[in-house]
TrEMBL record:
Entry-linked InterPro entries: ARM-like (IPR011989), ARM-type_fold (IPR016024)
Transmembrane segments: none
GO cellular component, one term: cytosol
Taxonomic lineage: Eukaryota, Viridiplantae, Chlorophyta, Mamiellophyceae, Mamiellales
Molecular function in Gene Ontology: protein kinase regulator activity
Coiled-coil region list: none
Keyword Repeat: yes
Protein name: HEAT repeat-containing protein 1
One Pfam family here: HEAT_EZ
Record-level GO BP terms: cellular response to amino acid starvation; regulation of translation
Keywords attached to this entry: Repeat
Origin species: Micromonas pusilla (Picoplanktonic green alga)
Keyword Repeat part of the UniProt annotation: yes
């Protein structure tokens, strides 16, 4: 809920940084939370704040290590690139969202490329 629209980007970026650190420290113990974290990080890729998008993309790259199959994540990210999420955004925001999404795809493939089918 902290990552909702009513909180400033600096707060969201700090929370995403904390979640990424938690993934690093908690490791495999966080595996039951992967679906919720993945949904949160993917939603944050659409945020208008650049720092939030960057931290979300980085956190998704770390999260991939905890799941053996990343097909769903890569498909989700690919479909968001084609989706209508950019309709309400300005051209600069849309470009930033696409860049962050592509960074997340690159991170997912870098960490688990062999597991993508």
């Amino acid at each position: 809920r902290v990552l909702g629209d009513k909180h400033p980007g600096s707060v969201k970026a700090a929370v995403l940084g904390a979640l990424a650190s938690l993934i690093d420290v908690g490791g495999i113990a966080l595996k039951p939370f992967v679906p919720q974290l993945q949904t949160t990080f993917v939603k944050c890729l659409l945020d208008p704040n650049r720092a939030v998008r960057q931290r979300s993309a980085a956190a998704l790259g770390r999260l991939v290590v905890l799941q053996p199959r990343v097909d769903a994540l890569v498909n989700d990210l690919a479909s968001s690139l084609e989706g209508s999420a950019f309709d309400a955004a300005t051209a600069d925001d849309a470009r930033g969202v696409r860049q962050a999404t592509l960074r997340a795809v690159a991170g997912a493939l870098a960490h688990a490329g062999a597991n993508v089918k």
